[in-house]
Design brief:
With 440 residues, this protein is α+β, with helices and mostly antiparallel strands. The chain is built from 13 helices and 18 strands. It has 2 domains: 1-199 and 326-440, P-loop containing nucleotide triphosphate hydrolases (Rossmann fold, 3-Layer(aba) Sandwich); 209-324, no CATH class. Strands 2-1-6-7-8-9-10 form a 7-stranded antiparallel β-sheet. β6 (105-113) and β7 (116-124) form a beta hairpin. The protein is globular.
Length: 440
């Protein structure tokens, strides 16, 4: 299995992010405990963490980091299908500063795919890609794959083989060259395109009651018994008293979905397939506190707790990530789950005995129980905060000066809740009281 990982990710002029921010998984490689999973690269000279967490008050920009990566991926995968003069959907600049409203949005991501290191950079306006660059690192040295700049000929590196001019004829100003090449007969950029298509999963809606449980349910539909057994083990380890899982086809799914008549048939079929199977959870039936051979199945929609639904929802993505060695991003990680279950899921990624395929997990959360695991280094803890201009700032715990007081592998929650790291809500109870209670 080729190594796959994210090294770092940068965003500029996007939603609440005005000035460039960079979230990095990179480790300083000092005093790493043997029970903390890290992933080596560059001939084992460098390594990244298998887990990082982002903390911060509501509306501070945590989710915008996840949205940014999601929009980048969607732009790469689908820009080839944009028609001439279509706006670029990913364009959503910072709007609280008139000097940035019409400026380019920028994304930058450094990653490993099949043991090769890449750096991909794009800047674009509402209708036009003005800068797109792809580098790689043969023998550890940075080299060009291609450089595309507005009003300039595309520059190619020596590794970029095959026909080029023909591909350029299909390149509209609102399309990414990476997307055009990957959707042609030229396969030179396929590893990079496949990384964005297959190796990053972003879970941004854990508290949606309309979730089709894509990853988990699809694996069960395929009658993957090994997956089912692993899923049941995770749910049992979460103390959810689960004996079995089965899927039941909903014959009335067409009526409940109410799909438009003019929807393309391939999309219609995919949506129906996503929703027509409903999961049921089996629980052992007891007789005078003695277990029987009977299992009673409960409907997910109205007979299971929110915590069980959330755990089922996320477990499929967790299992797939751990088995395939991919990267999983989970926004609002704490939503609907007990803090101990959050710790359990984090443990799956930071435990070297479990995470043998180099999977990565990034979460945003308010759950301070993760901060008290005493297994994390400062570099793995990140914070978002907004300044007085409404600008999201991102910084790691390792950037604070009092490192001798706040040591690696400490319980960080008390310092965080005390406001030592900023990134907590600034509450004004007196103003709240004066606003609610009538004068006099």
């Amino acid at each position: 299995m080729g190594c796959v990982m994210i090294i770092d990710f940068s965003i500029r002029n996007y939603l609440s992010i005005r000035d460039e921010i960079t979230l990095s998984f990179l480790s300083n490689n000092k005093n790493i405990r043997s029970d903390l999973k890290t992933i080596p690269f560059d001939r084992n000279d460098s390594e990244v963490y298998s887990f990082s967490a982002i903390y911060g008050p509501n509306a501070s920009g945590k989710t915008n980091i996840f949205k940014g990566l999601s929009n980048l991926i969607q732009f790469i995968l689908f820009s080839n299908s944009l028609n001439k003069d279509n706006p670029i959907p990913a364009y959503d600049p910072f709007k609280l500063d008139k000097n940035f409203i019409d400026k380019p949005v920028g994304f930058e991501i450094e990653f490993i795919k099949d043991n090769q290191r890449y750096l991909y950079i794009i800047d674009f306006t509402k209708y036009e890609v003005i800068n797109e660059r792809l580098y790689y690192y043969p023998e550890g040295r940075k080299a060009v794959l291609f450089i595309r700049e507005k009003n300039k000929e595309i520059k190619y590196g020596t590794y970029f083989t095959g026909k080029k001019k023909i591909l350029e004829t299909f390149l509209l100003r609102n399309k990414l060259y990476l997307s055009v090449v990957a959707n042609s007969t030229n396969d030179v950029l396929n590893p990079v395109y496949n990384f964005f298509r297959d190796d990053i999963k972003i879970h941004v809606q854990m508290d949606s009651s309309f979730a089709p449980f894509h990853s988990t349910t699809h694996e069960l539909i395929n009658e993957n018994s090994a997956f089912k057994n692993t899923l049941i083990k995770i749910l049992k380890s979460a103390d959810l008293n689960i004996a079995d899982i089965k899927l039941v086809e909903d014959k009335n799914v067409l009526k409940s979905l109410k799909l438009p008549d003019d929807m393309p048939e391939n999309i219609r079929s995919q949506i129906i397939n996503d929703f027509k199977f409903k999961p049921y959870i089996g629980h052992i039936v007891y007789d005078n506190e003695k277990s029987t051979n009977k299992v009673e199945y409960f409907n997910f929609n109205n007979e299971e707790s929110t915590g069980t639904v959330k755990m089922y929802d996320i477990s499929g993505e967790v299992i797939n990530s751990l088995q395939k060695g991919t990267t999983l991003f989970i926004d609002e990680f704490n939503s609907g789950l007990h803090p101990y279950l959050n710790q359990l899921l984090v443990e799956l990624f930071i435990n070297p005995k479990i995470n043998r395929n180099n999977a990565q997990l990034l979460i945003s959360t308010h759950d301070t129980c993760v901060l008290d695991m005493s297994k994390l280094k400062r570099e793995q803890i990140w914070f978002t905060d907004k300044n007085k201009f409404g600008v999201t700032e991102l910084f790691s715990l390792d950037e604070f000066e009092d490192k001798n007081i706040i040591r690696d592998y400490s319980k960080y929650s008390k310092f965080y809740l005390d406001g030592r790291f900023r990134a907590v809500p600034k509450l004004n109870i007196n103003e709240l009281i004066s606003g609610i209670l009538p004068n006099g």
